[in-house]
Amino acid sequence: MAGAIIENMSTKKLVILGVILMLFQAFSFMVGGLIAPSPTAAVSYLATKCVDNEKTHHKNPKWFTPWGPDQCSKIKDFDEAMVKKIEANNIVFAIHIPPPNTEMSTWFQFLLLILHFDIAFKIQNQIADGASITIDVRLAYRDDKLSEWTQMAHSVEQRKLSCNFTAAKTIENEGRLYDCDLLPFMELGSVAHKYYLLNVRLPVNERKKVNIGIGEINDMRLVGIHQNGGFTKVWFAMKTFLTPSVLIIMIWYWKRITQMTRPPVLLEKVIFALGISMTFINIPVEWFSVGFDWTWMLLFGDIRQGIFYAMLLSFWIIFCGEHLMDQTERNRFSVYWKQVIPIVFGSFCLFIFDMCERGVQLKNPFYSIWASDVGTELAMAFIIVAGICACLYFLFLCFMVFQVFRNISGKRSCLPAMTKARRLHYEGLIFRFKFLMLVTLACAAMTVIFFIISQVSEGHWLWGGHTVQVNSAFFTGIYGMWNLYVFALMFLYAPSHKRYGDEQSSADQAGNSGEDTQLTTTITHVDGPTEIYKMTGKEAQE
Amino acid sequence: MNFLPNGICFYLSVAICWFSSRVDASWWYMGTLGSQVMCDNIPGLINKQRQLCRQHPKVMQAIGAGIKNWIGECQHQFRTHRWNCNTMAREHNLFGRLLHRSSREAAFVYAISSAGMVYTLTRACSQGELENCSCDPGKKGSSRDAKGAFDWGGCSDHVDHAIKFTQVFIDAKERKERDARALMNLHNNRAGRKAVKRFMNLECKCHGVSGSCNVRTCWLAMADFRQTGDYLRKKYNNAIQVVMNQYGTGFTSAYRMLKRPNKNDLVYFEDSPDYCIWDHESGSVGTGGRVCNRTSRGTDSCEVMCCGRGYDTSRVSRTTKCECKFQWCCAVHCRDCQEEVDVHTCKTQS
């Protein structure tokens, strides 16, 4: 590989660049921690039990509103329904999203609903083993409080009940609630309307065993999760700022490559591809979701993230391979197919899984791959295969890193005996590799640490008088960090434009044919290499 | 308004009762008025409570409807005891004169009623029945509360609002009077509110890229009210008898060897009356006529329940439902079974 900027940069300049990047890093953490609210909000809803007195099943369904001027006729509990001889098929659970005096906003980006049943224990009406609930659900929307509701989705879904009764099953404990698992219910990929309405029925069909053996359902609870509007605004602003930054460095990088007389080497191409994928994930296409009802934004975001991660993992493999100094086969992508296949295959499995889940939800928001046995097995299979590919990749990467370090230590012992040109070349390779290894490990460690913190902590800390949103800081900080990583990579590993010294001709005269393949360029600079560079060279000599 | 003669008699009797006796926690009475809550006609509400009643009529309806819930829980917890949390519908005060005494039972009733109001309001908020739950109306589409705007960072949980409102409403009367009983009620009301909060479960959901835990959202879910009732029942069993300290600002344990009460304990001043005998002065109705369990060894055994006065046995033939098949919600098909059982009831005092 040709000499990169990082080798020729003075220590002073390198430190200045590092400090600037650190300041941007701290700023990106603070934007999330201090300005943005928490990433998501959860609102609890308790379904209202409405009575459908219409006996006919006409084409246009009537919509039952739990509150407001045209609210439905309600029952408080099912003892009341028993007394009035109301049938199960005439009970409609009605949920209005959002709560009174609030409006949904396009800034919320998605709406995820989770279902929980309150089922009371009764000795003579227990939950059968392996029971599943059949749910007939309709979703409607309107954009002002006086409009008619417009149907958006309708589906008949099944969900498996998984309930435990922790107390003894005695008559004294009748009326106590089972401990039931949460059930996935609905996911909308965009929130384009202000008001949503859900009407849910639990139809009973004794002959077909529909909703038989589900126990005594007292209530239906939903939890609505959406992205906070403030977080969305901060996130979009960050993306809008980062896109031109990475784009500019990408253009500059390409100009540097094209200015050279030789064609770009594989590593330079891979770095450029990494910049493209980073820009692709940065482009704030989400701004369109504020104006358009595009439900595929979530899926599109997932795909972009997948592309970036695949490219990043491939870059690490190729970077290691290109720094194996004794390898005669290099600068060709075909050399790395063994290591890249696990990345591609694992990414493909996750892509299929995402299409099976979020892709189907574009048509039917109530679909969940976990609701059926076949779906659960398929999902687990895809996830397991992706996990195996991740492990394989990790082993390959560790092995290659090990090889590079062994190569480095072998080469270091030979450094004093080399000619000056060869020694400078190898020292440059060693410095480049160690620098990137250090920075990559730091970024990966930071990502893992913050992931663990966000799982364990409550989500916000009180710091002085301010509330620090740790989860938001995690998102903006880590996102900013990887952008800075790619930025620094393209800047520092761009080819240097320094002139070659006089040693080139002498190297040609004294070098043998075997070593010539290793020496594509030589490095000279009037300022000399950085202090770190000198120390590594001196250490090698000792 | 034009009252019918029986209406006039009703209000006259209410007025007479109001003047003739002191009324505690008059808001309990709202349940007996049904959905027709008339703030000015509930005896014993102080001005602040009446004002809140007028400002939030739907809240009052929800509270009235929820009274049945916590009374049922109270009666469940004490179903096998001499005092069984019975209410007297014909009295203007639900529990009669029983709560005039600063007893253990009064402490429990105040705590569970406070907890019941929090529970009821939280449910009403989740159903959307109340308008000003956790986001006060501001500009269009930008409702906000102390936590911030709904469309920026979301609003508080419903339970936080319910606790605040319950505290303001229930404690208004006690804060107006500065005597020992008021302090006791304030303490027990707060213990009840904390009991509900104690059983909020933190539930989390992982979502994000491919369902990984890239994003995780948590919320507080309210548990079964029975758990709160069980907890307060344990607190009742371990309630602490206290006296006022010399400054009149707090409590000291009545017996030096016992621990001082903390915020979760129930406190009381006076020993309980003898619930065995009917005593108009203390409000005890006695255990005469109560059904007891001859084979039990607990508090519902005939020996304990009847206070040693003996019991009557009668053979009763009754029709029960058996071999029931349930359909969810609203239908049950059963066979009728005939059986004869012995019913034991306590003798009345002679």
How is the secondary structure organized here?
The complex is a heterodimer of chains A (542) and B (350).
Chain A: H1 5-8, H2 11-35, E1 40-46, E2 48-51, E3 74-75, H3 78-83, E4 91-97, E5 111-120, E6 132-142, E7 150-160, E8 163-164, E9 179-180, E10 183-188, E11 195-201, E12 216-227, H4 229-259, H5 266-282, H6 287-291, H7 297-322, H8 337-361, H9 373-414, H10 420-456, E13 460-463, E14 466-469, H11 470-492, H12 503-510, H13 513-516, H14 531-541
Antiparallel strand pairs in A: 1-12, 2-3, 2-4, 4-11, 5-10, 5-12, 6-7, 6-11, 8-9, 13-14
Helix pairs in contact in A: 2-11, 4-5, 4-11, 5-7, 5-11, 7-8, 7-9, 8-9, 10-11, 10-14
Chain B: H1 5-20, H2 47-55, H3 57-77, H4 104-126, E1 136-139, E2 142-145, E3 148-149, H5 150-153, H6 158-176, H7 180-198, E4 200-207, E5 215-222, H8 225-237, E6 240-244, E7 251-253, E8 267-268, E9 278-279, E10 284-285, E11 291-292, H9 302-305, E12 311-327, E13 331-346
Parallel strand pairs in B: 6-8
Antiparallel strand pairs in B: 1-2, 2-3, 4-5, 6-7, 9-10, 11-13, 12-13
Helix pairs in contact in B: 3-4, 3-8, 4-6, 4-7, 4-8, 6-7, 7-8
Q: What is the percentage of strand-forming residues of chain B?
A: 15-25%
Low-confidence stretches of chain A: 499-542
- State the strand order across the main sheet of chain B: 1-2-3
Please identify the top-level CATH class of the largest domain in chain A: Mainly Alpha
Helix content of chain B: 25-40%
Shape of chain A: elongated
Q: What does the average pLDDT of chain A come to?
A: 80
General shape of chain B: globular
CATH level-two architecture of the largest domain in chain A: Up-down Bundle
Distance between the termini of chain A: 26 Å
Helix-strand sequence of chain B: HHHHEEEHHHEEHEEEEEEHEE
Which range does the strand content of chain A fall in? 15-25%
User: Which structural category fits the helices and strands of chain A?
Assistant: alpha+beta
Q: How many distinct beta strands of chain B?
A: 13
Keywords (chain A): Developmental protein, Golgi apparatus, Membrane, Transmembrane, Transmembrane helix, Wnt signaling pathway
Membrane topology (chain A): Multi-pass membrane protein
InterPro entries (chain A): WLS-like_TM (IPR047843), WLS_GOLD (IPR053936), Wntless (IPR009551)
Subcellular location (chain A): Golgi apparatus membrane
